[in-house]
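Components:
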Amino acid sequence: MSGILVFAEQREGKLNRVTYEAVVAGQRLSASLSQPLSVVLLGSGVDAIAQELATKKADNVYLVDNEHLKNYTPDGFSLAMRQAIEQLQPSYVLLSHTYLVRDFAPKLATSMGKSLIADCVGYKLDGSKLTLVRQIFQGKINADVSVHDSAPVLISFQAGAFRGDDIEAGSASVKSLAVTLSADQIRLEPQELFREAKQSVDLTQSKIIVSVGRGIKSQENIAVVEKLATALEADIGASRPICDSGWLPMDRQIGSSGQTVAPKLYLAVGISGAIQHVVGMKNASTIVAINKDANAPIFDIADFGIVGDLFELVPAIVDEVEKAKAEG
Amino acid sequence: MKIIVCVKQVPSRDAILRINETGNWIQDRDIAYDTNEPDAYAVEEALQIKEKLGGEVVICSLGPERVQMVIKEALAKGADRAIHICDPALDNLDALGQARAMAEVISKEGFDLVFTGLQSDDYGFAQTGVILGELLGVPSATIAMAVEADEASKTVRVKRELEAGWFQWYKLPMPASISIQSGLNQPRYATLKGIMNAKKKEIRKVTLADLSLNAELLSSKQRIEKVYFPVKSKKTEIIDGSAKEAAAKLVNKLKQMRAL
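Structure:
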């Protein structure tokens, strides 16, 4: 077995850009291990995407075109990927840890008696020995994970683990790869994609956002950060648990399942900085974090951090902002 | 309707974590534990379906003696009985190994639906529900924001959350394995009466001796060698002092940077 195989993700005929991050990982691993790089694309009528992928540096782009892959199902994708892997015999299979991959990759791995090393943020290579880096405890701690599985080893990488911009251009040859699927193997019936009622708050245009997380402890305490938002003429945002609890409406949610924002100033109050939140706000120009846990991952991406009790700090900041405004 | 809900106990989200002496895990004594958050939503979803359709909710939890705390909490909320898979040989297995133990127990038990939370706070594999589906030979769906079971047609409709605000309904034949996203319901609190009733409910213990897993199936294919606090990628300026001092310094800095 030899070679790196990267899973390319498309939905509704559009390439998920995060695929390029996995391709970057594949290009680097391919160079370090001197193994060929292939990309595999599953779908129906997605030739254009295969051509797009072929403009990147890789040996082959395999197009698995099958009517049973037109609409994504974990059954169809898992069965097709397994057949692709059996035909191509790669030593590593790389995927991006998207919602779609989370839905089928553990099934694929299990069907082959393998353990998917999921949601990795990087890798270390010592000769040909690969160690994966994973986040545990919601990003508070990293773990080096060794592999005790026979080839192929299945690995998924977190969004942002590699930069899609680092992708090397090239020209790969597009080849088609046949798989055998039948309707009775697909047990799930997918229906149309839809969005919930239109979001009424557009935080993508905000200049300043005061964002609140679990550290606020109760709905009554939301008023504490609202005062800060008023003083700063900022919009209020929130991490997922705050909206899940109904303390703020869903359209205030920032992160992978909410809005992606890039304001001039982002104040994260009582937000630990789990990756699901960070992906939605890491592009803010200036990030301020206030948290009582000095090890909270939010401090890793903050420009300024204050470790302490938000119930003391936030009112003090409000006072200072008012003072500064009065001074003009 | 018989629903098995897999519940995991994890360190509380506000627990201050320290690394153990051997550097390969956290110091797991003397810290507070909680029910893994999405699992609490999974329990609630199962209880609501049972209240609508009747049937039974069975909790399945794997872990040391202390996990009885989260089992009892689920029983106090209204689950009917529980299975506690308790054996030190299983504690540090990867998701596949632990799921194999759970699948054997669940398969003997029989079920219409298996619920898991979509991800655990500790290892964060986000795989158990899908692996269980495969091992049990039933279809699976993940990141569920709504579950509508229909006994007459033996099907379940699942509203799946996709990325960037998109959703999609999937219809699955039952039995099925579904992983539940946080926020799809409002988990109830246990009542005093519930807590009293829970004392009479069965918690069946299962050990390795009750399972037919051989040593090969019980060795992790991925192992943690070392844990450590991540190296910061960005230079963060930590502002210290009393609340008042820190606030004044921060506002001053933001003014200088014209961020205000």
